[in-house]
Design goal:
Layout: E1 5-10, H1 14-26, E2 31-36, H2 39-45, E3 53-56, E4 59-60, E5 63-64, H3 65-75, E6 80-85, H4 90-99, E7 103-106, H5 113-143, E8 147-152, E9 157-160, H6 162-168, H7 172-177, H8 180-183, E10 184-186, E11 205-212, E12 218-230, E13 233-242, H9 244-305, H10 314-338, H11 341-345, H12 348-363, E14 367-371, H13 373-377, H14 382-403, E15 408-415, E16 418-425, H15 442-452, E17 456-461, E18 467-474
Parallel strand pairs: 1-2, 1-3, 3-6, 6-7, 14-15
Antiparallel strand pairs: 4-5, 8-9, 8-13, 10-11, 11-12, 12-13, 15-16, 16-18, 17-18
Helix pairs in contact: 9-10, 12-14, 14-15
The structure holds adenosine-5'-triphosphate and magnesium ion.
Magnesium ion binds at residues 394, 397-398, 442.
Length: 476
């Protein structure tokens, strides 16, 4: 080593201190030494952290090597410590090495001292490197976002990160006594075992498991486990990621697709029903009226052929005209049930007014509708108007079906650039914040429609408190 070593010699005999330095010089060691002869001198010298090694005598008048070693270990643990002494018992030598001294040398045999110093310094250096590496790996595993653990074939945990304790709510000492299968319940049978080691057969693989916390909490985890060799035997190293969020989205997606399927099914069956109803109305009403008309026209033809005048046939013509009027009315009725012509001709406000009156007439439920001036004048996009109208219809249908005896108040207004429709009833209400998936489709359809036109819908209801639906959409 070409670097100049800094040595601190704790020695109350100047002759011995000289002797030590002479021996070291003779060996060719490049060094600089500071000599302290008592506790105070030693303490002061140690203020300097640059010493590579301390060479300490065993017993000084009011100080000793055990105390000196304690001090060095506390303030400069990286400095090597060698006991250089006249005589020492075997037990004491063993004890001081156990306490952390790097070596001991007898003054009667100083020739080994230079090599002992070099070896002790080297060892300290590699100890420091190992310590640094260990600290780094502890930092890394503790800063991992998920959980980390290492266990042996018997399932005993060797290492784990703080996050494992944090998410499982088990303390360090508890984890140390536990086995992996005390925490994790595997979804599949492959790695789950309550009897044997918890090893996957082949290489690193992802397993979805449930981590069961001390408080009974259940968190879905994806575990990736790899077999590695540690301390000469096969161990399993695992990292786990919390997959609650993706699990939740997965479930939501499944639920949505079920809803979508039932919505499609319902749309189809509604279409079928509607077609059947229209067919019946056309057949029963229009069909009869036209048949009647045909018979009347036939009678008229015969009468004209028999030479009857228009005056003589006035009553018959009257019957024909009123049949035609009825047929026109029927056509209008069927058409407006399919889609109120008002929505296209007169706009949303008129259509909502008409629908409210129809509803009052049909169900005997007092229904008021008011629109503000801005809403009356605004020309909505036809698709948006249809969306608002259909949502209004579903709300009123729900009132008729579920709310019981009550009154309905609805409004349409434009405020702060938003068009807002409110439908409030004073009926029996329901738990609208229920998070259970809906089995019915009316309100699901309402939400779908709102989403399709870029509107937002909110439903507020509590049992006994009536129901309020608010549909709002920013205007372009
Ligand atoms: N105005 C209301 N007053 C009281 N309860 C209501 C009201 N609107 C909805 N509900 C409750 O909310 C539930 C869901 O309504 P939704 O319209 O989705 O279904 P539905 O009317 O029962 O069936 P459908 O799918 O045929 O519409 C209803 O079953 C009812 O319990
Ligand atoms: Mg409904």
């Amino acid at each position: 080593m070409t670097q100049e070593l800094k040595l601190l010699i704790l020695e109350d005999s100047p002759d011995d201190a000289d002797l030590i330095q002479r021996v070291l010089k003779r060996s060719g060691l490049n060094f600089q030494a500071v000599v302290a002869s008592d506790e105070r001198g030693f303490f002061n010298a140690l203020n300097d952290n640059g010493f590579h090694a301390v060479l300490s005598d065993n017993a000084l008048p009011q100080y000793n090597s055990t105390e000196a070693l304690k001090l060095v270990k506390t303030i400069h643990p990286q400095t090597a410590f060698i006991l250089v002494t006249g005589t020492v018992s075997e037990e004491f030598a063993v004890k001081i090495i156990q306490d952390g001294a790097d070596d001991y040398i007898l003054k009667t045999n100083l020739t080994r001292l230079p090599t002992a110093i070099m070896k002790a310094i080297e060892r300290k250096k590699s100890q420091k490197e190992v310590e640094q590496e260990k600290n780094l790996s502890v930092e890394i595993i503790n800063s991992l976002p998920g959980i980390f653990y290492l266990y042996d074939k018997s399932g005993r945990f060797i290492r784990w990160n703080r996050n494992l304790e944090f998410v499982s709510h088990y303390q360090y000492n508890e984890v140390a006594r536990m086995k992996p299968w005390d925490f994790f319940k595997a979804d599949r049978q492959t790695i789950s075992s309550t009897a044997g080691p918890w090893f996957s057969e082949s290489g690193p693989q992802g397993e979805e498991v449930t981590l069961i916390g001390k408080d009974g909490s259940r968190i879905p985890y994806l575990l990736l486990q790899t077999e590695i060799e540690y301390g000469g035997s096969a161990c399993l190293l695992g990292i786990g990621m919390d997959i609650s969020t993706s699990k939740k989205s997965e479930l939501e997606l499944k639920e949505l697709s079920v809803q979508l399927r039932s919505l499609t099914h319902r749309l189809n069956s509604i279409r079928e029903q509607e077609q059947r109803r229209i067919a019946r109305e056309i057949h029963d009403e229009l069909g009869q009226q036209l048949t009647g008309l045909k018979m009347d026209v036939f009678t008229l033809k015969n009468a004209v052929a028999a030479g009857k005048t228009a005056n003589q046939l006035e009553t018959k013509f009257g019957e024909v005209f009123s049949l035609i009027d009825e047929a026109i009315k029927s056509i209008r009725k069927i058409a407006s049930e399919l889609r109120p012509s008002m929505l296209d001709d007169l706009g949303l406000v008129a259509a909502l007014e008409w629908q409210s009156q129809e509803f009052t007439k049909r169900f005997n439920i007092e229904t008021s509708f008011n629109a503000d001036e801005k809403a009356k004048r605004y020309e909505l996009d036809p698709d948006v108007a249809t969306g608002f109208f259909r949502i209004y219809q579903e709300s009123l249908t729900n009132v008729a079906r579920h709310a019981g005896p009550c009154t309905v108040k609805s409004t349409l207004e434009i405020t702060n650039g938003n068009i807002i429709m409110k439908v409030m009833d004073t009926g029996k209400g329901f738990k609208s914040d229920n998070k259970e998936p809906r089995k019915t489709l009316g309100l699901v359809g309402v939400r779908e429609r709102a989403m399709m036109i870029g509107a937002n819908v909110e439903i507020f209801s509590e049992p006994g408190q009536g129901t309020e639906l608010i549909l709002s959409m920013p205007l372009p």
